[in-house]
Amino acid sequence: MSTPASLFDVVLTGLLPGEDGVWSRREIGVRDGVIAAIGAPGSLLGSRALDAGDAMLLPGMVDAHVHSLSHSGEGIAASTRAAAAGGVTTIVEMPFDATGPINSADRLARKKDLVADEAHVDVALLGTVAPEGGWRSVDALREHGVVGLKVSMFLTDPNRFPRIPDPELVNVFSAAQANGLPVCVHAENDEIVRTLIGRFRPEGADPLAHCRSRPPVAETTAILTALELAAHTGVKLHVCHTSLPRSVDLVRVFAELGADASLETCPHYMLLDEQHMARRGTRLKINPPLRSPADREGLWDRLRLGVIDVISSDHAPWPVEWKTRPNVFDNHSGAPGVETVYPLVLGEAHKRGPGVFDAAVRAMRRSGVLREDLRPTG
Known about the structure:
The protein is of the alpha/beta class and 378 residues long. Helix content is 35%, strand content 21%. The chain is globular, with a radius of gyration of 21 Å.
């Protein structure tokens, strides 16, 4: 017996926003894993019915910034299982893996096989390039399925996570533009940071020495360079993990001038500040670092105004022994987040009012890399 066109696999009932922004009880009809209809309560017929009462029905999050393979202790299976537990239905996976950066078709093919075998949610893969002549690999990376590129303006690791010099960035941006690929950028000025790390390393018993070694100007000058190069080449640019209201403002100015630029921020910059690092220590070492309470509030102000495009986790967990060494500069940078970003940010956004909550939901449905193509699922 064929299934009637009006019968859905599942009908979910709960709170949904209307065009006026008011949340009210409505139904969602799901067929073949896709939302097929939205209607008033009692209007849709399904093989199964799930009533969430007065709970909000939210889309699955797209986490635009996840490092699953920075070390051998996690992996695709674990990170995507955590994603699913936290309401994340798609991750954009970074290319800086412990076994080597994803900068060739062969490495990309092996990672695609790994994702196919292990992933519990949808995974979009980024590629990267070698510091010298790496732009020549962009064509092959696109042909084999990357959705974009990720490059760093700061040298984290000479092999796994290298710095791409400015002249090479011009070539990479041009090659990406020719292939229709966006480029995600870790924007920190390498010379400023490296000089200040040398100056402040003797003070490394103080966790805040990390913050002093990466001042706001290290972020904003790098962002300005990336924006100018993007405007020059016409590439789609996505600025990763902006930690400062000023960084948001710079990207918005260039976008208004015609650059194809977007940005993301992360829960640690919205929920924590340098005072937390003073109390909790080296575990909160993140690049860019935690900023001032005023900067944290400034990010919420810009979310309220609708000028923060994406909120991502920048999920980058490390073994505890790599995060608790006495000198802050001897510890790895990064923190877990793919399982907690959605509930934590939405919980705080809800306290700040319906407009902020709706803006947060929108920012966590989008990916700067796939902002025109990716459609999140429920």
